[in-house]
Amino acid sequence: MLDLFNDEAPWTEPLAEGALIIRRLARDRAESLLAAINEIAAGNPFEHRITPGGHRMSVAMTNCGDLGWTSNARGYQYSDREPASGKTWPPMPEHFRHLAIAAAEQAGFPRFNPDACLINRYEPGAKLTLHQDKDEKDFHQPIVSVSLGLPAVFLFGGFERGDATQRVLLEHGDVVVWGGPSRLRFHGILPVKPGIHPLAGAFRYNLTFRRVR
Ligand SMILES: O=C(O)CCC(=O)C(=O)O
Ligand SMILES: [Fe+2]
């Protein structure tokens, strides 16, 4: 169907050295991405994990790929299965992998080979406090993050928690890549505002692709 509001080609906005926003890169594939997320969640449901500090995360999570990120009272970890059910994660769909590799390449990381995809689901009010992605063994490869559904404000900071942050509105189909000198920058998501997205309903979804091992 011809969509008069959906005819813009992706464009890029640099965030920092090694960090790039590729606006709308995933938009024309969003329906199949969301369908695959639903399929993954049918077998490995979204869960609100407990942090090592004992807090229930407002973001609900599942994973696909060889490894998945989880958290419990003992700490953060990557594991090949869902801890409570013992179920392995479903394979990373090829179209997920292709999108992540193409985005990384466009951002200057031509050899991205993700083995983990964390799938975050934000309901209105859900947020992710400032953190570094540092549970991976390999910091040479970037993080590729794909936003779908409701918009949210992404905070992109420095290398200390208290450093100043940039605030960037991430919208449906936007992809952010950070690696190289920006790989360990703090980042987070402000509470998602209520809304209804035509494809994703009352949620924001985010896929983050990582190389763990
Ligand atoms: O939801 C986002 O845009 C960021 C997710 C994130 O930082 C993470 O999963 O580690
Ligand atoms: Fe993160």
Automatic annotation (TrEMBL):
Cofactors required: Fe(2+)
Record keywords: Dioxygenase, Iron, Metal-binding, Methyltransferase, Oxidoreductase, Transferase
Name used for this protein in its record: DNA oxidative demethylase AlkB
Binding-site list for 2-oxoglutarate: N120, R121, Y122, R204, Y205, N206, L207, T208, F209, R210
PANTHER family membership: ALKYLATED DNA REPAIR PROTEIN ALKB-RELATED, NUCLEIC ACID DIOXYGENASE ALKBH1
Superkingdom of this protein's organism: Bacteria
Manner of cofactor binding, per the entry note: Binds 1 Fe(2+) ion per subunit.
One function term, GO molecular function aspect: oxidative RNA demethylase activity
Domain Fe2OG dioxygenase: from-to ranges: 113-213
Gene3D superfamilies to which the protein is assigned, alphabetical: Alpha-ketoglutarate-dependent dioxygenase AlkB-like
GO cellular component, one term: cytoplasm
Organism: Paramixta manurensis
Residues given in the record as Fe cation binding sites: H131, D133, H187
Record-linked SUPFAM superfamilies: Clavaminate synthase-like
Pfam families: 2OG-FeII_Oxy_2
GO terms for biological process, alphabetical: methylation; oxidative RNA demethylation
Residues noted as binding substrate in the record, renumbered to the chain: W69, Y76, Q77, Y78, D135, R161
